[in-house]
Write a structure and sequence with these properties.
The complex is a heterodimer of chains A (181) and B (374). With 181 residues, chain A is mainly alpha-helical. Helix content of chain A is 66%, strand content 0%. Chain A contains 9 helices and no strands. In chain A, helix 1 crosses helix 4 and helix 7 packs across helix 9. The longest helix of chain A has 23 residues. With 374 residues, chain B is mainly beta. The termini of chain B are far apart. Chain B is elongated and about 95 Å long. In chain B, the strands form 6 sheets. In chain B, strands 3-2-1-24 form a 4-stranded antiparallel beta sheet, with no helix packed on it. In chain B, strands 4-5-6-7 form a 4-stranded antiparallel beta sheet, with no helix packed on it. In chain B, strand 1 and strand 2 form a beta hairpin. Classes of the chains: A mainly alpha (181), B mainly beta (374). Chains A and B meet through helix 1, helix 2, helix 3, helix 6 and helix 7 of A and helix 1 and helix 2 of B.
Chain lengths: 181, 374
């Protein structure tokens, strides 16, 4: 039985965070918003099952990423978007530093970008990234290493505001609830 | 580099997240519901294509059309979690070897044997309180309706007859009897036409309705079903020889004079609007008064079935939804809806199929000649 109340609470509490993560993975606000919404719609479609998962957010993120890499869908959506609006203005309201990071991320291969975002932004360990992406641990390590190397030339400026990395609502490493089921 | 990257990425993503204006949750749920309906429709179309190709083995489901679907509380289901599911009622069944058993509704295996042998197929009925099972036992050439507790016990003889159906109020038993087949051990010659008998379980008083058809042609009753208010009977009957003249008849046993439709009989056939040549092969009432039917195409001699559909229709025959596509070369019998109206079952030949909320049916087990929800 699908419970709308639990879905709404889950959606409201996670949609902005997930959209931010997808934006970093795809480099496009419109695409991130659309893919995340599609993933949530699919989550609601089978909410009786997804709500039982120990980390529904990871499920939605994975589905949203897969939706975003669907070539057919991407091509169709881009055609529609160009026809309606021209190229989307993605960077409004964002700091130049973050815009530079996103631009740099777009220049590295998608798999490396995904690994970088999951590890550095989402905060997953290498093992967790491996589990979520279906890759071997060694592969993830290699992607992270090569991704950082590829990003380095594009990221020469330090954070001008000197921000502390904000938490993202997950437990700290030491107290994290393991969920292998 | 690593800490710097992490910090800058998180700060920027948080800044970005604050600018996101997400859609309302209701809109997302509506999108999910639309997607679900589209998938159900796609599955149905695919199954129809496969069925039209001659395989005759596809099963499909279509949701109730239009905005009425959510209002009924029974949304279409594209791919139900068919192997489990809380609340699935129990099932009693008759095996091809003549045993009456209680089936495990999840595995389809017999969990209890109520009668070891000699049980006739065709129909089995459960009392509304779920405690007793009415079945037909073979006694030589004859059938004898007996009852046995679902929990197990000694069968009790009720009356000669076959195809029992207990009314939802538990007061009446409808069944079929063949005249001339009354004397135990005496096998009649050519079978006479069926009689529909309604018996008051408290007093034993019986009302007998003949078919009133032409004496040369038999119209055996294949299934009986009581309306939710226990006042009307739905009779599935058709000619013994071919596929012309099948009827799904609604009648009031208190006033009807025969069990076939006609101006003088008191019974009326369930309409089949807009589908020339199709006919109902069997049907039962659902708890909300709608009908769960097996609709075949097409009438004609020689008999040749081109489609066999399991449908939910209204009392006036209006289409509600398609539950499944049956095998063209099999009879679909023992149609039944559980008291909640959400679970449907039917036999396709000897195989038992279940459907939840009108979703694509799935085979639970095989080797049966009758089944019913407890």
């Amino acid at each position: 039985m699908r419970d709308p109340a639990t879905f709404d609470a889950f959606y409201s509490g996670s949609v902005q965070r997930l959209t931010g993560q997808l934006h970093a993975m795809t480099g496009s606000r419109a695409e991130a918003e659309d893919c995340v919404q599609e993933a949530y719609a699919r989550a609601w479609q089978r909410w009786d099952k997804v709500s039982g998962y120990c980390d529904p957010e990871a499920w939605v993120r994975t589905v949203a990423y897969r939706v975003s890499v669907s070539a057919w869908r991407k091509a169709a959506n881009m055609r529609t978007a160009h026809r309606r609006h021209g190229v989307a203005a993605d960077t409004r309201g964002l700091s130049p530093d973050y815009v530079a990071i996103i631009a740099a991320l777009r220049k590295i291969p998608p798999r490396q970008r995904q690994a970088i975002v999951l590890h550095h932004l989402v905060g997953l360990s290498v093992d967790e990234v491996a589990r979520e992406t279906g890759a071997a641990t060694g592969t993830v390590k290699a992607r992270l290493s090569r991704g950082r190397q590829a990003l380095a030339p594009h990221l020469t400026e330090a954070d001008p505001a000197g921000h502390e990395p904000p938490g993202r609502g997950r437990p700290e490493r030491g107290s994290e609830v393991r969920c292998d089921a | 580099m690593r800490d710097d990257l992490t910090g800058r990425l998180r700060a920027g993503a948080a800044e970005f997240a604050a600018t996101v204006r997400p859609a309302r949750p209701e809109a997302v749920r509506a999108r999910g519901n639309r997607r679900r309906r589209r998938q159900a429709l796609g599955a149905a179309v695919l199954a129809l294509v496969i069925g039209a190709g001659g395989a005759g083995t596809a099963y499909a489901s279509l949701g109730r059309p239009g905005p009425a679907a959510p209002a009924t509380g029974r949304p279409p289901s594209a791919a139900p979690a068919v192997t489990g599911g809380p609340g699935r009622p129990g099932i009693v069944a008759v095996t091809t070897k003549g045993a009456l058993v209680v089936l495990d509704p999840l595995s389809g295996e017999a969990s209890r044997i109520l009668v070891r042998g000699g049980v006739a197929g065709g129909a089995v009925a459960v009392s509304p309180d779920g405690r007793s099972v009415y079945f037909a036992a073979r006694r030589g050439c004859l059938g004898e309706i007996e009852s046995v507790p679902v929990a197990g016990g000694r069968p009790r003889m009720v009356t000669p007859g076959v195809r029992p159906a207990v009314s939802p109020d538990g007061r009446k038993l409808a069944f079929v009897r063949q005249p001339g087949a009354g004397a135990a051990g005496a096998c009649p010659g050519p079978p006479a036409d069926d009689q529909l008998v309604v018996r008051d379980l408290a007093t034993g008083a019986q009302t007998v309705l003949p078919s009133a058809a032409h004496p040369a042609q038999r119209y055996p009753v294949s299934q009986l079903s009581w309306s939710p208010d226990s006042r009307r009977l739905l009779v599935s009957a058709g000619p013994a020889q071919d596929n012309e003249g099948w009827q799904l008849v609604v009648l009031d046993p208190a006033t009807a004079r025969s069990y076939l439709a006609g101006a003088s009989s008191g019974g009326s056939a369930v309409p089949l609007p807009g589908l020339a040549g199709s006919y109902y092969r069997a049907g039962v009432y659902m708890p909300d008064g709608d009908l769960f039917v097996n609709q075949l195409c097409c009438t004609g001699i020689p008999a040749r079935v081109t489609s066999s559909l399991l449908l939910e229709v209204g009392p006036s025959g209006q289409f509600i939804r398609q539950v499944g596509i049956g095998f063209k070369d099999r009879d679909h019998t023992s149609l039944d809806a559980d008291p909640s109206g959400q679970w449907l079952l039917y036999l396709s030949g000897p195989d038992l199929f279940l459907s939840l909320d009108g979703a694509a049916p799935f085979k639970l087990t095989g080797g049966l000649t009758a089944a019913a929800w407890t």
